[in-house]
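Students often ask why we bother encoding 3D structure as a string. The short answer is that it lets us treat folding as translation between two languages. Here is a chain of 285 residues written in the first language.
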Amino acid sequence: MTNPSIGDQAATLAAEPARDLAQCDDGELLRLVRSLPLGNERRAAACEVLVTRYQPLVRSCARKYWNGPESADELMQVGYVGLMKAINKFDPGFGGSLAAYAFPSVTGELKRHFRDRCWQVHVKRSAQELVLELRTTARDLTQQLGRAPADAELASHLRVSVDDVRDARRADLGFNAWSLDAPLGADNETASLADLLGAEDDQVEHTLDMEAVAAHWNELPERQQQILLLRFYGNKTQADIGETLGISQMHVSRLLTQSLDYLRECLIGPEKQGPEKQLSKVGGS
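And here it is in the second language, the structure alphabet:
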């Protein structure tokens, strides 16, 4: 007596609607899924049994990402999509187990979901993948160490650089973006996020100007540097400076004017005079 073929076994299952599919093994259910067309009630029932049976596998894969911005229910739904793809593609005739085939399918679907749909700011794929690995590793190391792991410990465990870990942390911010005009509270009349941001700093321009002056500072003779420091940082009068340096107030005034003219010309350009005249001014101390 010959053994029934795979097609005959599937046909038998399909012809017995009253049979409890929950009693069938994975192979029988998968053969039934492959033999019946989409939309068939018997096929849908077989898929439902397999999904229920492998719910713990989906939960195990999704749990790794539960500390992210997505809810557990949303992640489970994404995982079920991966499981259904595995059920539809797996061929029991080639051997192996559905669990081994479904695991990478579910995990891949979850990663694809985060990569393609959750990022509100463009982040390169390598950083996206590292973010997901970083979350799992951080949770595991926290349990092992009894404290939050340092960036160096995370980098060593993931075999990446500390800079990569820091880049991943910054990339993690790309999951959520907020409008600057959105109210901070339930009341629409409350302050917005933009109200909490700092205004323009007037000292920025001053800092740039001082950096420009510093680029030419050492081009001045030492005495003229000293006069400028005493006048603008020491708040001394020209008479006080002359007394300190042992020169006349008139000499101080002349050197002060020469120094300011030279620095001004360096910053905004010469005024109808050649470089020889500029250098003669600096050398006139």
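Translate back mentally: Confidence is low (pLDDT under 50) at residues 272-285. Keep this in mind for the problem set.
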